[in-house]
Amino acid sequence: MKILVLYLILLKATVTSFAGLASLPVVRDELVIQRHVLTDTQLNESVVITRSSPGPVGLYVVSAGYFVAGLPGAFAGWLAMVTPALLIIPLLLFAGRRAEHPRVKAALQTVVIASAALLLAAAIPLAKDALVDYMTIGIAVASLALLLKTRLDSLWIIFGSAAVSVVISFLPLLKMG
User: Fold this and answer.
1) ∠38-41-43 over CA atoms, to 5°?
2) How far apart, in whole angstroms, are the C-alpha atoms of residue 108 and residue 23?
3) Which of 68, 92, 121, 155 sits 20 to 30 Å CA-CA off 32?
4) What is the pLDDT of residues 89-102, one digit of tens each?
């Protein structure tokens, strides 16, 4: 895949999403479904890498770019991630003065709701790829419950889920020895 095309696809995703993982449906549709240059597993790994490291949630586009085209692809993903931030500065100068206007507030709330819907739409196919047995389903359910019922930081839930998975994977070895 040409790097410019990859950049434009990832830019389209980052510009139209307004929030970290809300760009997942665009990335999945373009790179997994239509162009077949990325798999759902690789997209899942990109998200896991991002959630396991410091930095913005939308950083997964760098990993996705890497999976598609190596280091040049990672650079295209990084550039696609930072371009909207650079474009937003003039927009903030314009909209910042009007932020309390009811129409501007309504538009911003609509963007948040649309981003949440896009995120849910992307999560369903990724969950189908990741939830493969009772252990992964149990970890997902427990993680969701912790996210909804506690104020525990998502990073600790991710680390805890990984630890539970590793411990469970060693249980059959313990029974043998």
Assistant:
1) 55
2) 17
3) 155
4) 787 777 777 777 88
| pLDDT higher than 80, residue 56 | no
For the full predicted model, state whether its pTM sits above 0.70: no
Task: Tell me which residue of 2, 1, 3, 28 sits closest to 13, measured CA to CA.
Answer: 28
Q: Please, is 142 exposed, middle or buried when counting C-beta atoms within 10 Å of its C-beta (0-12, 13-18, 19+)?
A: middle
Where along the chain do its domains lie? 3-128, 131-177
DSSP string, the chain: --HHHHHHHHHHHHHHH-SGGGGHHHHIIIIIIIS-SS-HHHHHHHHHHHHTSSS-GGGHHHHHHHHHHHHHHHHHHHHHHHHHHHHHHHHHHHHHTTTTSHHHHHHHHHHHHHHHHHHHHHHHHHHHHH--SHHHHHHHHHHHHHHHHS---HHHHHHHHHHHHHHHHHHHHHHH-
Q: pLDDT for 17-48, tens place per residue?
A: 766 777 888 899 999 999 999 999 999 999 88
Give 122 or 67, the one with higher predicted confidence: 67
Helices 3-17, 60-96: axis angle to 10 degrees equals: 50
